[in-house]
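agent> fetching stored inputs for the F0G docking request
agent> found them:
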Amino acid sequence: MEPKGHRSWAEPFKIKVVEPLHMTSRAEREQLIAEAGYNTFLLRSKDVYIDLLTDSGTAAMSDYQWAGLMLGDEAYAGSRNFYHLEAAVQKYYGYRYVVPTHQGRGAEHILSKITIKTGDYVPGNMYFTTTRLHQELAGGTFEDVVIDEAHDPESPHPFKGNVDLNKLESLIKRVGPQRIPYVSVAATVNMAGGQPISMGNLKAVRALTSGYGIRVILDAARALENAYFVQQREEGYRERPVADILKEICSYTDGCTMSAKKDALVNIGGFLALNDPDLFEEARNLVVVYEGLHTYGGLAGRDMEAIARGIEESVQDDHIRARVGQVEYLGNKLIEWGVPVVVPIGGHAVYLDARRFYPHIPQDEYPAQTLTAELYVESGVRGMERGIVSAGRDAQTGEQHYPKLELVRLAIPRRVYTQAHMDVTAESVQEVYRQREGVRGLRMTYEPRYLRFFQARFERL
Ligand code: F0G
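agent> prediction call returned; pasting tokens
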């Protein structure tokens, strides 16, 4: 008889090249984090054991991608790798026109400049740091129109990235559709914990905005992970390949900004994709000012080849199942052990809830920043603050934003770490949780003007 029951999944690849890791002592880490101003962005990577700072640009490329690097056509104009990239985006994302950029924020910059005028509003399903800053620098004001559940780390809503259609429509009525150049829809929502938007909600956003003649622009950095959640959680999608679902997501939008450093499995690169020929002409013209000619946009030919190949690999169902499965493995372990994390577990990262770790540390004393430092000192694991430091200040008043979510993100690079690394990470987090009482917060000693979380410095209180 066949034994019934559970079958484990495993990664659909084996490892060909390895990179040694280095473990420091606790005393060394105490000194290193102090020297880094208690900011994990200011640590050297050689001093990090398991690096969960970001899933951005940290993927392991495949042999097929590495082979593609040798086929780089490093011509200034008309590189064949650009045409391969363009074809891959057209085939898998379904947009007509593609402008390569050096990474996601390059695309955000171009898009913001060609669409936003002073006094405009850009509604979005929660802010992202670089996205909002480019909207503001172009003269716009970001308006959060995500559902309330997104701001609640304990809400189990399966699609916490959904747009609140009432919030969106009341903004449209308040400021008028002509003041809204586009609705910025992220799939998945990074700052909410890697939470997806449902296909049903996206369709409704499309229907609402079409009535007013407002564009929808997708932040596609992790849209494939979103497609996987749709497949797993939404009625009618269970039997559909993620590649199909991704294309359907894109079909309800007018274009996308893309950081290929996420879903697309490369270490650098991005693009802006559009359907409107006039807007494309403007983007193609402006990209030469800031990034490079429209057939390379700040990338080497080989980089574009790696993205084209990465896209082809990323849309495979077995890849995305293992990718999100690994994140869920880590998250479920922490849930089982009673460690406070954002639920449901997101697509690219597990988010620790610093408010529930350190209820005695007020938000002004940076509980999440403190937790990233404590975790590093305990174990050499590097995470990232996603709370008050990341939220920054109001562009008009200069007041600090006080986000409801005060989180530490443990982002899992794609195809890089093993299940054993996840076990070690979970045990490290559990130990920090056990020692949570009596931990003191931080004071900020240096605050940069833009995107302060990257370079701010702190000292222990
Ligand atoms: N949009 C989202 C949702 C992102 O997460 C990022 C980057 C960007 C846009 C900008 O792309 O870095 O290529 O310029 N997120 C990184 C992270 C930094 O760690 O989450 P980029």
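agent> quick read of the result: Residues 54, 56, 103-105, 128, 130-131, 186, 190, 219, 221, 259, 261, 270 surround F0G (CB under 6 Å).
agent> awaiting further instructions
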